[in-house]
Each structure stands twice: as C-alpha cells, then as structure tokens.
Design goal:
mainly alpha, globular, two-stranded antiparallel sheet, 4 helices
Length: about 70
Amino acid sequence: MSAIPKWERMEWEMMARGVVPQTIWENWGECSKQWLHGHGGTVDRVTGLLDWGPEISRAAERLVHA
C-alpha cells in the first residue's frame, strides 16, 4: 500500500487550515516531496516548515540547493 495518499491528505488538511507547506511555496515537484517523506522527513503541521530529521538532513540540504 502506498503512503502517497496519506501525504497528500496531510498537505490538503494543512492548506485547509491556512498553513501552506514549505514544499508548496518552494514549488517542489511530486518526486521531491515523495523523496522527503519516503526518507523520514516531514512537514511541521503547525508552521508548514520542513523537518528533515537527523538521518537525511545532509542529503536534504543538497537537494534544496540543487
């Protein structure tokens, strides 16, 4: 079973509350968002800011700069 619908639902619920996820305002593509969530990162549901987690912070920083 794919987790993608769960991630999309989280994104829509945040926007319905007026919280714009950082992945939206930075115009991330679907593959990049799936990579983030699939490797343990998330988006803070209150602020909308990215939360990399310690395991992927270095790779995630390179992704953002790319």
